[in-house]
Amino acid sequence: QTVVTQEPSFSVSPGGTLTLTCGLSSGSVSTTNYPSWYQQTPGQPPRTLIYSTSRRSFGVPDRFSGSILGNKAALTITGAQTDDESHYYCVLYDGGIWVFGGGTKLTVL
Amino acid sequence: EVHLVESGGGLVQPGGSLRLSCAASGFTFSTYWMNWVRQAPGKGLEWVANIKYDGSDKNYVDSVKGRFTISRDNAKNSVYLQMNSLRAEDTAVYYCARDFRPDYWGQGTLVTVSS
After folding, report:
1. Cβ contacts (< 8 Å) between A32 and chain B: which residues?
2. I need a labelling partner for A82 at 20 to 30 A (CA). Which of A68, B11, B28, B60 fits?
């Protein structure tokens, strides 16, 4: 059974840069896992930030970028803003199905 | 503008059934994969199922195989999730999401399985 791992929580100061990661229990993440990243605030549906590793969804500022770092997918946020305080989820395609990570709660303070 | 509206949620007893619907607009529905993703109260996202644009390929998470069935009607721009043998652990907000790599999401519909 595939498990996708994310940091449970992360904290950053306003204006700072951070990188969240997304790992795969079965091995290294690659572009063929089509990593995507979503932002979700309480009571709202997820908002797509990044798809297919590094492609920004329409309207997403270029402060958000996606990549593969080592053996994990990564979401980097530069110039963190208080509005970025949210839950962030990654999803990976593995074995014919999609598997979400448990999410990272980002605090900006 | 892409618009997805889920409906059909509600309170159901364990062992019962429910059929969710998702009405799509603002894009050529018949050319996109569609997904159902759920979120239990206070928990993370869980992908449930997807269906190819022509209905010829369907995939499910192991926990719902044999109980849930995804289907679509391209003439009605709608995707459905038939949920049978419901369990307490199926309690969640159910979202439909467009495309093979989920991009646009609906607002969700709440399913509560409880006696």
Report:
1. none
2. A68
Q: What distance in Å separates the CA atoms of residue B19 and residue A21, rounded to the nearest whole number?
A: 36
Coil, strand, or helix at residue B29?
A: helix
Paired residues of B15 in beta bridges:
none
Nearest by CB: B106 against A38, A45, A89? A45
- Which DSSP category does A57 fall into? P
Which of B3, B22, B42 lies closest to B109, judged by CA? B22
> Strand order of the sheet with strand B34-39?
B10-12, B109-113, B92-98, B34-39, B45-51, B58-60
Query: For the CA atoms of B93, B65, B97, A40, what is the dihedral angle to 10 degrees?
Result: 50
pLDDT in tens, chain B (115 residues): 999 999 999 999 999 999 999 999 999 999 999 999 999 999 999 999 999 999 999 999 999 999 999 999 999 999 999 999 999 999 999 999 999 999 999 999 999 999 9
